[in-house]
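REQUEST ID: PR-0412
SUBMITTED BY: lab tech R.K.
PRIORITY: routine
TASK: structure prediction, single protein chain
INPUT:
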Amino acid sequence: MTPASLSFAAKGWLWPAAALFVVGLLLIYRSYSGTSLPRKIGVASAALKAAGLALILSFLLEPTWTTTRPREGANLFAVVVDNSMGLEVLASAARGIIFGQAIYF
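STATUS: complete
OUTPUT:
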């Protein structure tokens, strides 16, 4: 069984999503460049906004988690039973008991 993988269904949206991400990063940088926040807090909050923007824009690409699994009915098997006269073996010629009947008695 192969491991699961992440694939994207709408690959045509890759370049528009990348362009929107770059524009969003520029806007995030501009909004935090003139603030009076301490540098660590500003960088942390800008990073969180960039991560949120990347997550939102990734939905444009329609991510799909792909795994392999067995087909429906792949593990079924047939049991064939032959009940013809050729399989009836005499267990005792003297008594005339058929082999299948001797087992049940």
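NOTES: Residues 14-33 form the longest helix (20 residues).
REVIEWED BY: pending
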